[in-house]
Amino acid sequence: MRVRSSVFALVLIVAAAAGWQIAQPLSAQTGAAPKFEVDRLWPKPLPNHWILGSVTGLAVDAQDHIWIVHRGLDSLTQRTEAGLATTPPGSEDCCGPAPPVLEFDAAGTLVGHWGGPGQGYEWPISPGGIEVDAKGNVWITAAGPPDVPVAAPPAAGAGGGTGRAGGGNRAGGAAAPPRPADAHVLKFTRTGQFVLQIGKAGQTGTKDSEASLDRPADVAVDSAANEVYVADGGASQRIVVFDAMTGLPKRHWGGQGTSFTRVSCVALSKDGLVYVCDRNNNRIQVFKKDGTFVKEAFVSKATLLAGSVWDIAFSPDAQQRNLFVADGQDNKIFVLDRAALTEVSNFGGGGGWPGSFRLVGSIGVDSKGNIYTGETFEGKRVQKFVKK
Amino acid sequence: MTNRRNLLIAATFTAVLLVLGVLERTFEREAEAQAQNGLVDAPRFEVDPAFPKPLPNNWQLGETIGVDVDAQDRVWIVHRSDQVVYGETGADQNPPAASCCRRAPPVLAFDQQGNVIKHWGGPGAGYEWPQSNHGIAVDYKGVVWIGGNVGPDSQLLKFTQDGTFITQFGKSGQNKGSNDPENFGRPAKIYVDPKNNEAYIADGYGNKRVVVIDADTGKFKRYWGGYGNKPDDTNFGTYNPDAAPIQQFRTPVHCAMISVDRLVYVCDRPNDRVQVFKEDGTFVKEIFVKKKTLGDGSTWDIAFSKDPQQKYLYLADGKNEKVYILLRETMEFLSSFGDGGRQPGQFFAVHSIAVDSKGNLYTTETYQGRRLQKFVFKGVQKVPRDQGVVWPK
Predict the structure, then answer these.
(1) Which residue of A has its CA nearest to B59?
(2) What is the pTM of this model?
């Protein structure tokens, strides 16, 4: 016990030296910044005993509808979590995966659902980001196979022991032959009619190739210029811009200074800047639309493992004064001043209760400034934070 | 004509009443339910989405594998701190990888406001901490009991509420099967009968029996298997809902509790059944619950309602993700609430259940559920058979 206490104390000291607030209360939001409060009862329970898999992407459209894409059965533990999806069913009442693309209204009612394999396109092994453009098209990146959570060394903490009976193993049935890695982006109408596929599964390129993608993580659409920006998050680690109608490549660029280590998002501000999440480097890099580097900033710079900058969103005011960063490793939302790229506040914390997070990986903002988040891996939730 | 027809209706009505009078309560209830448009009288609950408060110290829960409520209405849980996902415990690593999070100590107690007021647990001198924590009970003397369900776990531990070790019954690694008179076989749950100072042990993940011991000395007093038979460690294979029920419990035997009218209720989890016994182990009756449920089964844990008669029995089903409300006397199903998911009032592997003095229910979730939830008792009201996710009205 004494040894453990000493380790705890050491952790506290080191963490304090690194500038972290270890005991950050959920409600603590410092500085002159917008205040948010979790809506504990949003969204409404899904129908049909549907449950969410790991949520990989979230977007808010022009009507303030919230769109998510999740991994579905592939990320659910069939034996313990998705009994209705096994053959024969392992349970009588609960549960099965919801369709991969879900659309909620601002009240949290499910108003649309679609997705999955179909004619003329390759549904991803695992989806990545989702975006709804100004014309109402829904873009989804194909980012699988998904990241495997960091393998853990043997635990030294209390409780001891591994390999318990009845653990949460993933019993998937007979192994199917591996599919070629995702390397594409899909465009649908908002009702799920297929429109366009950019790239092809298995045809991954290098960082110099014109068109080939590798597990793209996110998209952003410049509807005025009719261009789609793709966060090409696999081996290439770059931003690639395509014509949003034809899918033809136009330009691409990589990280400034040092390479991107994990391009996990791309977002376009109203004043014409391109924001890129360089997740494992804990940084945001900002470019002009032609790829000219403008500036960069670090967020929670001491964060290790998967890094701190997982996804970003802008405040809805004309100046977009705030930039919100979803940090799935620290399980926090950082509120930045967009111009200065400095932190003005943060909220969140780890846990499965409302307002806390388990790997918050995607974020969006509606026209009223409310924040929506999606949690990946075992988080498997979408949450709403009301702007006060 | 009219008179004769009325007479006929009256006669029919009387006959129906007579028939109803001799029918079992089940049918009576069903008729009543139909008459009330599908509603029945049963306890109604609403989830408290703000309970508990966020844990202090950036603590995270692992598989939350036991819950009980003490005489002061403090809520005790035990969880597997070693099972917190590595990527979610960056602050525990050296050097720290992130501000989030740290493993919470295995035993936590919450006050009625949802604040953590006690925290302890883990290996120590003089006792063998389980390899895999399973089950927590605070007995009528205020003593905290812990079981364990993996590998060599064959022991029960007793602590004071401050975590001071009191005694250990059984020795790790020494289980000799379902007729071992001294050791347990990965015991799942403990319940202490205040009347006779006896502890009822659901034994467990290794053995296939209920054991009753003296709560002070740990001396075995009696034990029995399914239907009151002598326990038999034969491997009966995988549960098949279409086969005849086996005459033994199937592991895990997941709960064993005695009611005020001296009936012992046993969760025979993978057999999807609850068996009821007299306190000497004489079989009384059984019910099957969601009988087509495979794998982990449907009957995970039991709690009794807080009225003096313990009129209702609450049954947690971590596979179908529901809490069932039964009329205890007849074991008739009245209503259920819950569904799968990670939002308040939803469950992933609802594992354990307990009631406080006001009748409020507490649940904990294992696997990746990893939560404690509170369901506020709103009184006995007219409720649907399936209440779904019980959010505050």
Answers:
(1) A350
(2) 0.90
